[in-house]
Each structure stands twice: as structure tokens, then as C-alpha cells.
Write a sequence for this structure.
């Protein structure tokens, strides 16, 4: 998230009721991430969540959630890649 986007999000969060702010917030990470490496060169989150072919499909409870289509560049039916701005997962997503 850019500094400008973060400032806008913070301003909107102050103006919105808490329930609405929660509804538009990125989903929380439901598991521990201690020791995860999230850098430009390596991202441990993607070992499980880089699954573009699973987007929109049914999943069983507890199954890994694929990163959403908005996080990719390229066609999903080809070889899409995570867009640069979405590579730092913990910039937006936080553990519970």
C-alpha cells in the first residue's frame, strides 16, 4: 500500500463506523506467520496462496484461500504473476 493510499484509508477509517470499516478491510491472516519471510526476493505466503487456477472455485473448510484475481497481472488462464504492489502481503493483511 502506498503512503497516499494508507493515508486515505486511515482518514476513511476515522469517518466510517467500525462495522463498515471491518467490512472493507483486507481479510485477517488466520494462522501464525512468525518466521515468514516476505521480501521482494521471497514470499512464504505465496507457497500456499499463489493458486490462480483456484480463484472462484469451491473450497472445503480449512482449505487454502487463493490470492484474489485483483492481485495478479496477466491472464489467469495463462501464467499470471502476483503484481508488484501486492507482493508484500503483510502491508495490508495482519494476523488475528
Amino acid at each position: 500500500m502506498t503512503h497516499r493510499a494508507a493515508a486515505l484509508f486511515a482518514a476513511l477509517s476515522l469517518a466510517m463506523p467500525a462495522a463498515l470499516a471491518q467490512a472493507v478491510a483486507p481479510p485477517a491472516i488466520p494462522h501464525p506467520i512468525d518466521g515468514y519471510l516476505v521480501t521482494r526476493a521471497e514470499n512464504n505466503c505465496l507457497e500456499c496462496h499463489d493458486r490462480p487456477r483456484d480463484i472462484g472455485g469451491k473450497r472445503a473448510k480449512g482449505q487454502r484461500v487463493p490470492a484474489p484475481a485483483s492481485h495478479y497481472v496477466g491472464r489467469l488462464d495463462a501464467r499470471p504473476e502476483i503484481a508488484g504492489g501486492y507482493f508484500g502481503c503483510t502491508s495490508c493483511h495482519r494476523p488475528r
Observations:
- Helices lie at 3-15, 18-24, 46-49.
- The first helix runs from residue 3 to 15.
- The CA atoms of residues 31 and 89 lie 14 Å apart.
- The beta strands are 72-73, 81-82.
